[in-house]
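hi got a favour to ask and not much time before my train. below you get a single protein, a line of residues and a line of whole numbers that encode the local backbone shape. could you go over both lines and see whether the tokens make sense for that sequence. a few lines back from you is plenty, here it is:
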Amino acid sequence: PNCSIIIPHYNGEDILYRCLSSIYRHTDSDNEVIVVDNNSSDNSIQMVKKDFPKTKIILNNKNIGYAGACNVGAKKSKNEYLIFLNNDTEVTQDWIEPLINKLQNNTVASVQPKIKNLIDTDYFDYAGASGGYIDIFGYPFCRGRVFNTIEKDQLQYESESNIFWASGTAFATKKEIFIESGMFDLKLFAHMEEIDYHWRTQMMGYRVMVCPKSVIYHEGGKTLSYQSSKKTYLNHRNNLIIFLSNHKLSVLLMLFIPRILLHLTSTLIDLISLRVSHSFSQIRALSWIIINPFYIIKKRQKNKKLQIKKYQLHGMIKKSIVFNYFLLQKRYFFDY
């Protein structure tokens, strides 16, 4: 079956050219390629029209983030299978078929390829590695990456398996499920919207998988730098949002106080480390949560309508990776 490859884009003509070149080099021409541009100020769109004329272009009149651009692309796509792909990626030969093969299982909502680093190609990439997991407090990690410890790919994570979340860097999903779930939450704008989406799909009774037979490479940090305090704000705010809106109420009440203490500890560490702007970003993130309780309540109500009576969360570990990583020095995925 053919699929629609959706690439959200905001500036970076060179990385988009590299991405599209790899797609047209390694992808069957029957697949639809869509670039959703968030009002770029460079020559990206002119380049696409000139060098990749088969590409469908959708122009937004403002930057609506990764979440918004993907939603627009999904609604205007023509195929039943979608692949969301970052603009700073390169795909490889035969990358689509393994993903789509897994998606044809009725119980599977999404499939992620193995994601390796484009600059240091022997290593996994920070954003997804070989499949996303999460701890009970909502902190994400991957097969091949725990916090800032990134493993060398020595084929140690080649098995296909259930995971908690598939990275927004690159994953395939079913359009029908994506629409039915409510798509990406626009409030999240960018970062962790894929975790939120895949938590919901598991509530709906579906599974999320990783298929390492499919490989892509990712540069990372090209739209928003890893050093950006805005990235810190979005990551911490959005992480609190998904923690508060997706957990069962009984679990949430039990974990709420220690989770907030973990957030405040991180804020203090950034302050002591003289990362003042990042510390302030974490304060802003918590403040946003405090002044937007009705958004959280409404999001929980929407989720409740999606939930089947009994659902299983694959890829969630019932321990704190913060405690294990920083205090017990468990730095690698196989420690968990």
In short: The CA atoms of residues 270 and 279 lie 5 Å apart. The chain has a mean pLDDT of 96.
